[in-house]
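Subject: sequence -> structure tokens, single chain

Hey, anyone have a minute? Need the predicted structure for the following. Not urgent.
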Amino acid sequence: MASLSNQRVANDFREYRGQPKWSDQELEAHWRARDYQQPAPYQPAEPGLNPWPAPPPPKAAVALTQQQKDFLASTIPDLEDAGNTAFAGGPGYWTGKKLLGTGGFGMVALWQYEGPAGDQSQKYHQVAVKEATGDAASHLENDDMIHWELTKTKSQHVNHCLIQGRTVDPQAENLHPDWEGKVKRLILEYCPLGDVRQLIKRFQNLGRPFKETTLWKIFECLVDGISVMETGNELSYPSPTHEFLRRGRQNWDPIIHFDMKPGNIFMSDDRFSHFTTPVCKIGDFGLAEFDWHFLLDGDAQYNDQVWLQILLFRDNGSPGYFVPEQFTEEWEFRDYKNSNIAGKYSYATNVWGIGCIMYQLVLLTDNSPDPKVPFTPSWNLNGNIPKGRTFGLPLHGQSRYYSRQLTDLVQECLYEVPQHRPGLEDLKTRVRSGFLDALHVDPVPDLWKDFEPQPPGRADGRPYCRGVVKKTGKSCENAGLDEHGGYCGLHKKQRSQQAQQTPQPQVRRNPVRNAR
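Reply:
Had a minute. Here:
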């Protein structure tokens, strides 16, 4: 008989897969009563080449709650501490400027330095402060521990923690005594370009797809990020072999994120290392797990206690972004321990997360791959027979703007069986090759201004012009006019120039890139 927790998890994921929930009687009759059998193959209808999505209507600004206002008005002890020379800390020197995001367990906001001119030791003038908002059970200790270990790798493809999280003094901060010895807030690097979810919104509003070179660069950032999570280092590229190699960090425990989604990929404006695209950084490690790989070592896979621990990982994540290792129905069958999917967490779990993010970027959609309709592709993926079932729309039917080299690789990252997903070295090699091929086809990058967040609205309530002042490279502050497509009269010519840069369907010259 399944426990109450198993019943809840089983029914949650049955609903997630589009199946009816079990009653208590059905659960008792069916729960692990027989071995799993693969269902009949399903082949979804291939979608037509629909017009590019119309820009969504603008959303009205949402007023801050009192809790959010109090957060922005609060003092942050780490930023008030004069001993923190990197922040030039001092009373009243730092001010909460704007809310960056909210989640189930906390809030993140921008804090800006407004004190006297600091000395040369001051490193930061803007930081992101993440604070837990619930009771002491919502502490950020795990998030802090993983963030800090990743920060020590110095990789630019993970969001850095600027100071190790400090435990709070409940009495000084008027908190419940349960907060004693707990981490309530983190001081993180601020990424001024926002996150990939917001980036998708910007290009939806522009009404045009990303350039393929942009998507390859984002893809590469994500691969570098999960490589650091797996080994403690990014893949190296030594000469003369020209093959990417792992350099594992000593005593490193692999990290599984469990919440890879566009809203957790942050973008910095470091144009020294990335001239044409933002640097994408994996962040928000509140649901991540590390020091877990021992669970399936040796004969542990036959230990019921170990599987109970693995079962707890099924809850880690966000709806729409759970991995097959969590939501597969094979958990419900008697031979679940022999499954190639259920509980088989590894670096491939993070690869699935990359696949979800790239899928949404390719389709410029807010929707993640649908877990209800796995299918086996009827076409070859990058010249190879498909290894098994994958998820989402058949991307080669939507690839009017992108090469099969890109869309097939995204589909491979979404394979149901973790072993079928590409390895890290294979991913890095193919992403680099794809970028160079795309650069040869279309060397013109996306405009940098299109990556930037829209400035606050004008005082008169009208939107800003979408044009750029050529002398300064900054966005125009005139009002945009509907008759000029959102440009002012001074910059209306830039509208036609922008239209010329929108990628058009074209025949790819490389036969490998389009091989069926």
